[in-house]
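discrete fold record:
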Amino acid sequence: MTNRPARIVGAAVLAAIAVAAVPDPAGAHGRSLSWSSWRLTDEGAHVRVRVPLLELTRLGVDPTADPSAGRSIARQLAAQMQLTRGGEPCGATEEPWPSAAPAGQVVYEWRVRCGGGAGPLTITSSFLLDEAPSHLHFARVEGSDGVIRERILSDAAPSWSLGESGAGDDATGPKPAGTSFAGYVALGIEHIATGWDHLAFVLALLLLAASLREVAGLVTGFTVAHSVTLALAVLGVVRPEPAAVEALIGFSIALVAAENGWLLGGRGRALPWIVSAALLGMAGLALAGLGAVPAGALAGLALFSRCHFALLERAARPAPLRAAVAFAFGLIHGFGFAGILAELALPTDRLVPALLGFNVGVELGQLAIVAVAWPALRGLARIAAGRPHRVLTELGSAAICGLGLFWFLARTFE
């Protein structure tokens, strides 16, 4: 038992080095996303496309530093996001032009004109699918009558048929179907199943859970918290900075996993002070203008971490405190979930089913993970006096801690 802390620290360091050695900057990406808005006219459409700058690193370009790269990206967008009528492409009437964009993103606009032929209008996007097959593109269509619909385009379904009348201005024609409630449920399930940071957080919580009651407390706290902030963010009540949220999700993973190792290693006094000092040091860097997380947030995390470890040190039963931490960090993860919906600016009749369906999907995906992982962990605890379970908990927590630490630092300083 005396080599347990060294084994935990060693595995954490190895995990961080292994992940940091990956040269692709996309390693710190969240979900790969882009957005477009199509305002239909009698002749064609006005197109506006928005892409995070981080996504363009997948193409090896930086349009903010190289104007020629910006023109190349604009042409690529116009070529890979097309409107067709009856199978015939609607051609761009001019070169795409850059437009005002939020920090960390680029926006390009252009107009397309459709020929005089007949047939249904269809939007197709193949942008970034070769570089990131899991890329999701959110297309928003506004018809000449003001009707708004949205649809999620992906590698499995890259096209959206709008029917003969576009957004439904012809009462007798087919209406363009936006993404359904079931489609948003599926998106929520896919988001949790492919969101490695969210999965790592849930698994870090489960590794040290000692009973089904404790699991229920952890999952309930996390679920309630992220449901609240998901709703607040999507409804526009709160709009945190996405880069800071993604970084803090990484911190939450690292802290919970480090807490596992600290509890297993005997609750020594060094780790709480190291965590607080490191966060205060990063707050100092933030005051100097470095990093995506504000200095106040980092200083607050330092105080939170120190207080949390102090309470755990005195707690005979850590389960209630861990449930409280699952709730606290669930608030942050909720903002991460919301990023996939908040930017769509949906009308109320579309927002409610989208929010509810996506949240249901996230919960179903999360429960499926617990249903698989928890029985497996309990099974290991019954073998060889629980030694395989202890080893897995130690090394698994260390590896997750290293991964969370990498995400935290990479997303803070990228």
